[in-house]
Specification:
Strand order of the largest sheet: 2-1-3-4-6-5
CATH class of the largest domain: Alpha Beta
Radius of gyration: 25 Å
Number of domains: 3
Oligomer: single chain
Shape: globular
CATH topology of the largest domain: Rossmann fold
Length: about 525
């Protein structure tokens, strides 16, 4: 019965379109993986480190805009998936987490790799599903698998967890032919549907007498309909787009660097702030909005909405592109306010950056200015993505794990993204600490040849030199900044990746030549 059930689970995932998986080795999950292999239509990538595997699955989901999955064995192995689960939850990215488990009667009995795995990832999971591998009937299996996939996509988007308890013996029947059982019904992908945005909704929310409206697009998944709405709206209302919004070609240019390098003119304070998307990187903007607290309207299709500006936002559940299009059609125009924001971009300068920060900023700017093939750019957290935000312009798609803003899976996410589409060129730019911390991302059966790693090696976590406070306590520095003197040639050699170390800064032409070479890891030493 176990063999048939596991084969049917594989069939159901295939029917639901969940074909890309990151897999970590183990015994308890081996029968599950065997069914996926026997099915023959899945793309499986091995990552011995479960944390790297989960982030790689997240990267696959980001590239596909559809759930990918991660499979791991029981016990503490499952706990290592948690950082990626949190990132997927706050980044609103679908993810299927499949953990093997031991029977319930063995929990707390001192049996190896046996812990409490049910609801392990709450409250950072949209739902939890328990499967008893030996005893569950196939009708229940079909309902469970389909429900787990559907929940990851509708009405919210995020991770779901399936825990499969397997009793011994678990290896019987592995050499049997695959049990091909047709599901009773096809998987049907549901979509969120929202009421149309009428002129009355705009007028009730934003009175015609309002003269200063500001639109802010936070982190957002790629959306053609949103791009079309912003292409119109930007000529009528000032629009600020976060570097992770996938909309940076629209609106006010260089606004984050301008706010970082100048005092904020009070005549730019909006009467009404309209936000869509998720988190925003710019610290100066957060400080400004928290100080002046404009009336705040957040537009989204579903889900929990944060209050990062302490403005107690009014939440409108509509399709964001529909709302912005209606806002363009039915709001008053204030050319003076739009011009004031447009002029802000001309004030952007790097005069407040020290030489070390400036050289790293220019390195990132050169990469973001690459026109040839416009590779997908993945940024580590802390200073790397802040440099990108200050640059603010690129023809490339830009990704960064800003759901929780951790450094623990930046490279692994990029690896998964690149594996999901071998025809698309990718570059991952991250700092030395992020690189070291996530180096097991390179420990996989097939490191993607369409991914280049660019490491900015400045000898430690330089974000703490930028943040006010830590630098005033010298005794803290060794414990929070992580000073280090490593170079990474030997580490790359260990993982069988080609490496070159260069001094930063470089000319744009020389940098492009290196990026276009066959070298997989480029280390820029800027300290």
């Amino acid at each position: 019965m176990l063999r048939e059930n596991l084969d049917f689970i594989a069939t159901l995932f295939y029917e639901a379109g969940i074909t890309q998986w990151a897999v970590s080795p183990g015994s308890r999950n081996a029968p599950i993986v065997a069914s996926f292999l026997r099915h023959g239509q899945f793309t499986l990538h091995s990552f011995p480190d479960e944390r790297a595997a989960a982030f790689a699955a997240l990267g696959m989901s980001l590239e596909n805009q559809y759930p990918a999955g991660v499979i791991c064995t029981s016990g503490t192995a499952a706990i290592n998936l948690y950082p990626a689960v949190c990132e997927a939850f706050y980044q609103r990215t679908p993810l299927i987490v499949l953990t093997a488990d031991r029977p319930a009667n063995l929990i707390d009995q001192w049996d190896g790799q046996t812990i409490h795995q049910q609801n392990l990832f709450q409250p950072h999971c949209l739902d939890f599903f328990q499967i008893e591998g030996h005893s569950i009937d196939q009708i229940s299996l079909e309902k469970t698998i389909y429900a787990a996939v559907e929940t990851s996509l509708f009405p919210k988007t995020g991770p779901t967890h399936i825990n499969i308890s397997l009793e011994d013996p678990i290896y019987q029947g592995l050499s049997d032919p695959f049990h091909s059982i047709e599901p009773s019904q096809p998987f049907i992908f549901k979509h969120n549907t929202q009421k149309p945005v009428t002129p009355e909704i705009i007028l009730e929310t934003i009175p015609q007498t309002t003269s200063k409206i500001l639109v802010l697009v936070g982190q957002h998944h790629p959306s053609q309909s949103l791009s079309e709405a912003l292409s119109l709206l930007q000529h009528k209302i000032p629009v600020l787009t976060d570097i992770c919004s996938h909309q940076i070609e629209f609106g006010i240019q260089n606004w984050d660097l301008a706010l970082s390098s100048n005092d904020f003119p009070e005549n730019l304070v909006p009467e009404i702030l309209v936000t869509i998307g998720m988190a925003t990187i710019s610290k100066p903007l957060k400080t400004i909005l928290r100080k002046y607290k404009p009336k705040h309207i957040h537009v989204c299709e579903s889900g929990t909405v944060g209050d990062p500006f302490q403005t107690n936002p009014t939440i409108l559940y509509h399709h964001d592109a529909d709302f912005l299009t209606a806002l363009y059609l039915h709001s008053a125009e204030n050319t003076d306010y739009l011009t004031l924001w447009g002029n802000l971009g001309y004030l952007a300068n790097t005069s407040k950056l020290s030489s070390n920060y400036l050289s790293e900023y220019l390195l990132v700017k050169t990469i973001m200015d690459l026109d040839e093939d416009s590779p997908v750019l993945h940024f580590g957290n802390s200073m790397s993505i802040r440099y990108a935000s200050w640059v603010g312009q690129s023809k490339s798609e830009i990704y960064c794990n800003r759901g929780t803003s951790g450094i623990d899976g930046s490279l692994s996410t990029a690896v998964g993204f690149a594996l999901a589409n071998p025809d698309k060129q990718n570059i991952c730019i991250l700092g030395d600490i992020s690189f070291l911390y996530d180096s097991n991302a390179m420990w996989t059966n097939h490191f993607p040849q369409n991914l280049k790693i660019i490491v900015i090696n400045n000898g430690g976590g330089q974000i703490f030199s930028w943040i006010n406070g830590p630098s005033g306590e010298p005794k803290l520095i060794p414990f929070i900044e992580t000073p280090q003197s490593y170079q990474f040639a030997d580490l790359c050699k260990f993982f069988q990746l080609s490496h070159i170390a260069m001094k930063n800064p470089l000319s744009a032409d020389k940098l492009k030549k290196i990026i276009n070479s066959n070298v997989q890891c480029i280390e820029f030493i800027s300290k």
